[in-house]
């Protein structure tokens, strides 16, 4: 079993790159002569959530972990619409600018959706792909959503955007208060993990309080929804070996049972017990062993 002890050794270095005129941030764990490994976080998260994974692969890979636009230390959008295609473009630009092709990608949640779409867009550039609960809403969730007419979904989106425009980032008196909120959000997290994610996930305001770094507008979903037919077209174009991972205690449905796995040409599905949506935190050792075995094949 892979060790899940505290982080050791030097941390990564911070860098920036530009995409659609936005200044975006990423961390680089060194070892530039090794094969590239890109780690893509999920919604309302940040690149330092991968630190334990990066520590386990830094000796064998050149690891880069970006902050998606509107997240972490990357710049926020002008306006408030964060589209999946924009995230895909940002990742495409990072891989292109840093010459990471061919690249192995490990991604979580929304970042997984981004990785899958990128791999379907440029299948020849991706060597292997590990996606943790990144298939998006289940077929049933999409079916339920599509029962609402487009004009009603658009009206709901307008109202949501108006509320977000007046919503101020929540302020915490101390990092400890934010840490407690992090623990409440995911009770699977150990105190060590929750503290680390909090320290790297907040910034201090001018008045001395602390707020989460992500832009509140990333909470909004387009009224056009998640197009399952177009999404399956991207999945079908992926040629590299793909590992799809889910937690048995998550809201995400099993892609084998709901039929989504059949749209991949070369995918393996694994479910990890006693894990929720953040599998790589909830069962880090199991996740690392499974991923190392997959990448070594």
Tell me the name of the CATH homologous superfamily.
Answer: Alpha/Beta hydrolase fold, catalytic domain
- Output the strand order for the largest sheet: 1-2-4-3-5-6-9-10
CATH architecture: 3-Layer(aba) Sandwich
Tell me the name of the CATH class: Alpha Beta
As for the number of domains, it is: 1
What is the chain-wise order of helices and strands?
EEEHEHEHEHHHHEEHEEHH
How would you classify the helix and strand content by structural class?
alpha/beta
Write down how many β-strands occur, each being a DSSP E stretch of 2 or more residues. 10
> Total number of helical segments?
10
Q: What share of residues is helical?
A: 25-40%
Descriptive report:
- The chain is α/β, with parallel strands linked by helices.
- The chain has ten helices and ten strands.
- An eight-stranded mixed β-sheet has the order 1-2-4-3-5-6-9-10, with helices on both faces.
- Helix 2 packs across helix 3 (110-121) and helix 3 (110-121) crosses helix 8.
- It is globular and about 50 Å long.
- The two termini are 18 Å apart.
């Amino acid at each position: 079993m892979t060790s899940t002890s505290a982080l050791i050794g030097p941390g990564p270095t911070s860098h920036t790159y530009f995409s659609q005129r936005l200044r975006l941030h990423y961390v680089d764990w060194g070892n530039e002569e090794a094969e590239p490994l890109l780690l893509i976080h999920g919604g309302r998260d940040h690149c330092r959530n991968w630190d334990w994974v990066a520590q386990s692969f830094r000796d064998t890979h050149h690891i880069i972990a970006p902050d998606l636009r509107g997240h972490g230390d990357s710049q926020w959008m002008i306006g408030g619409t964060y589209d999946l295609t924009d995230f895909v473009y940002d990742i495409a630009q990072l891989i292109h600018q840093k010459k990471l092709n061919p690249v192995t990608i490990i991604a979580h949640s929304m970042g997984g959706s981004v990785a899958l779409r990128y791999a379907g867009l440029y299948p020849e550039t991706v060597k292997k792909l590990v996606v943790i609960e990144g298939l998006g809403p289940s077929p049933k969730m999409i079916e339920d959503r599509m029962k609402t007419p487009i004009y009603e979904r658009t009206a709901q989106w307008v109202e949501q955007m108006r509320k977000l425009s007046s919503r101020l980032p929540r302020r915490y008196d101390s990092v400890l208060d934010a840490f407690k909120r992090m623990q409440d959000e995911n009770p699977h997290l150990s105190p060590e993990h929750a503290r680390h994610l909090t320290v790297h996930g907040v910034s201090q305001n001018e008045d001395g309080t602390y707020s989460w770094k992500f832009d509140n507008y990333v909470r909004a979903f387009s009224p056009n929804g998640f197009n399952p037919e177009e999404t399956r077209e991207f999945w079908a174009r992926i040629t590299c070996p793909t590992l799809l991972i889910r937690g048995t205690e998550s809201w995400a449905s099993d892609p084998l049972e709901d039929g989504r796995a059949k749209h991949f040409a070369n995918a393996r599905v694994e479910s990890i017990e006693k894990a929720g949506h953040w599998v790589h935190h909830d069962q880090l050792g199991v996740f690392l062993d499974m991923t190392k075995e997959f990448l070594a094949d």
